[in-house]
Amino acid sequence: DGAVRLEAEIDALVAELARAMGIGGRDRRLSAGAEKARLNVTRALRAAIARIEQADPDAGRILDRCVRTGTFCSYHPEGDGAVSWSAVTGP
To answer: Helix, strand, coil proportions of the chain in percent (round to 5)?
Structure first.
């Protein structure tokens, strides 16, 4: 019967997704290589933000508060995100 076959396929897909995500929906632990890369990216971003803060303390503080690192890196502006960024050319 087609419905039974489809339900079996759905169950197999759900089981595979659960296995890929980890027990109870928790993220799987990162491999040693992925963890090392994550730490290196975090260190590089934090060092760059520190250098920006030396040149422009206000911009550095905003970035320090709004840049999130971890498995994924992201920028989350505070409040309504009303910070206005503009490029500066030259030294």
So the answer is: 65, 5, 35
CA distance 7 to 30: 32
- Which helix H or strand E contains 68, and what residues bound it? strand 67-68
- Pair of tokens at residue 80: 């309504």
Q: Which residue has the higher pLDDT, 41 or 18?
A: 41
Determine contact, residues 11/17, Cβ cutoff 8 Å.
no
66 touches 78 (CB < 8 A): yes
pLDDT digit string (tens) for 25-51? 556 566 788 888 888 999 999 999 999
Q: What pLDDT is recorded for position 18?
A: 66
Spatial separation of the C-alpha atoms in residues 76 and 63, rounded to whole Å: 9
pTM (global) more than 0.70: no
